[in-house]
Amino acid sequence: MAEKRVRVRFAPSPTGDLHVGGARTALFNWLFARQHGGAFILRIEDTDQARLVGQSIEGIIEGLKWLGLEWDEGPDIGGPYGPYVQSQRLPLYQEHARWLVEHGHAYYCFCTPERLERVRQEQRARGEPPGYDRHCRYLPPEEVEARLARGEPAVIRFKMPLEGETTIVDLLRGEITYENRLLQDLVLLKSDGFPTYHLANVVDDHYMEISHILRAEEWIPSAPLHAQLYRAFGWEMPVLCHLPLILSPDGKGKLSKRHGATGVLEFKRLGYLPEAMINYLALLGWAYDAEREIFSREELIQLFRLEEVNPHPARFNFEKLLWMNQYYINHILSLDEFAQRCVPFLREAGLIGPEAEDPASPAFAYVREVVALVKDRAKLLSEVPELTRFFFTDVEDYDPELLLQRKVEPETVLGALERTLAVLEQADFADEADLERRLRALAEELGLKAGQLFMPIRVAVTGRTVSPGLFETLRVLGRERSLERLARAREKLAAYLAARAPSSSG
Q1: Rounded to whole angstroms, how far apart are CA atoms 316 and 262?
Q2: In this predicted structure, what is the pLDDT of residue 396?
Q3: pTM for the model
Q4: Do 32 and 65 form a contact (C-beta atoms < 8 A)?
Q5: How many Cα atoms within 13 Å fall on the side-chain side of residue 371?
Q6: What pLDDT does 255 receive?
Q7: Positive or negative, the Cα torsion across 199, 202, 205, 208?
Q8: DSSP code for 326
Q9: According to the model, what pLDDT value does residue 503 have?
Q10: Measuring CA to CA, how many Å separate 152 from each of 36, 110, 116, 147?
């Protein structure tokens, strides 16, 4: 028999933005599909209507697209096995639920929420694990028909075998065996006509010809029911692979919002690169070897092996992700790429206009010059506006005290600013070497250490004590703005010194 073509799916529920755990699951599915020349399907599981969050589908799609995990079939692009949104497939689930009842694999349950809660309380009081007591499993057929005819609300539950065992085979964990008597008769179809996860997934995975199911390990307890459903329908079960959990940095419980950003779009807004996110997520549970940590998307497709995924939980390390993001900014992105990635953040900060979005524009050329000075310092794209603000706007007001230097008389600093203006009037601002040569010569002339002169100049032109290299900064700012800011600093310092001088009495 010919080997089945690899077809995998990522099937999120639209209950919020794409979580990093879901993104890791999507990535492993995508890598597996691309590695085997198969298909990656996006399916939206929106059957739990009570938990739906508005605009979540759009957020999930945006997050996947930002990561570059394009799909071959899905709700937005269609495909031969659609629709790819479960709420649009209700008749299919209802038909299969009724088939299971008719063939003795499921039954109608009329138990009210109040009765179910009472049963659970009684079980807890007896020290028993809470669960459905199979009350309706043994109702006579005529009673079932009569109650349905009266319009009594009912769910459809699967009739789990009461004896024997159910064994599932997990790609990472091997065989896992369950005693059937310990398993529940779970709901397949709710009274509102919507399926539960269990029925919808089995039906959809069959008709969409899914070959491998790669999902979170939290679904392992549901796998015996799914195996029994496949058996009841007479269908072949896909290969199962349950991926390890992602834990908090301290390893104490699952990663959650209290630990920091957890949504993919949050990381996007914070200025992480999708390439770095993909690289980092791939290493949450998988490793190529003990030394190598940086992989391109193409390398991951080539090297990733699903069977090498570690079944044990992986800790999410924010510091490691930040290091990796900085590495990509510093070493992987070209200057042009970095500048293009910075443009949206600079625009959002109100520092540039839409014209800078055109890589051929003078506005973009200036952005490129500016961000080149911070490329080796930036850890996040979101840091760039603050690091470079003084290149795009006037220098914000600063404390004149910043212009003063320890062990240097204030009047000496004022005189140094005056001399700097005169010296730089003659400088070639396009030539960093000329700027450096002139200012170092001036420091020597004034009997100052280089830093004692450079610091007040830095503060004057940037408003800060920390900035990119002074000579690079002067070059990018240009003659006019640099001299203007130096003149303003001289005036600011003169006024400050005059205001604090003791008044003379006549």
Answers
A1: 10
A2: 80
A3: 0.91
A4: no
A5: 33
A6: 84
A7: negative
A8: H
A9: 60
A10: 50, 7, 16, 6
The encoded tokens of residue 186 equal 């779970």
Number of domains in the chain: 4
pLDDT at residue number 502: 77
CB 364 within 8 A of CB 357: yes
Tell me if residue 257 is catalytic: yes
| Phi, psi angle pair for 355, to nearest 5° | -60, -25
Provide DSSP, 193-214: SPBPHHHHHHHHHHHTT--EEE
User: How confident is the model at residue 430, as a pLDDT?
Assistant: 96
What six digits make up the tokens of 400? 């004149």
**Nearest-CA neighbor of 10 among 217, 215, 310?**
215
Name the residue range of residue 270's domain: 7-78+247-315
Residue 150 phi, psi dihedral angles, 5° rounding: -80, -5
Catalytic residue chosen out of the listed positions 257, 320, 375, 449: 257
Answer yes or no: do 98 and 206 share one domain. yes
Residues 339 and 409 reside in one and the same domain: no
- Domain closes at, from 190, 220, 243: 243
β-strands 155-158, 187-189 pairing: antiparallel
- H helix count then E strand count, the chain: 18, 11
pLDDT of residue 318: 95
Predicted local confidence at residue 31, as pLDDT: 98
Residue 84 belongs to some domain of the structure: no
**DSSP calls for 431-488:** -HHHHHHHHHHHHHHHT--HHHHHHHHHHHHHSSSS-S-HHHHHHHHHHHHHHHHHHH
Instruction: Decide which of 243, 267, 282 is a domain's last residue.
Output: 243
Whether 196 and 133 map to the same domain: the answer is yes
- What span, in angstroms and rounded, lies between the C-alpha atoms of 439 and 312? 60
Q: Which of 448, 476, 450 is nearest to 462 (CA)?
A: 476
Q: Which of 171, 168, 169 has its CA nearest to residue 32?
A: 171
Crossing angle of helices 90-102 and 223-233, rounded to 10°: 70
DSSP 181: G
Q: What is the mean pLDDT of each run of 10 residues along the chain (506 residues)?
A: 83 90 97 97 90 83 97 96 96 98 98 96 94 96 97 97 97 96 96 96 98 96 97 98 94 78 91 98 93 96 96 95 98 98 98 97 98 97 98 92 92 96 96 97 96 97 96 98 97 94 59
Do 447 and 408 contact (CB within 8 A), yes or no?
Answer: no
CATH at residue 73: 3.40.50.620
- Asked if 107 and 148 sit in the same domain, the reply is yes
Helix/strand/coil for 357: helix
* Residue whose tokens read 């450079």: 454
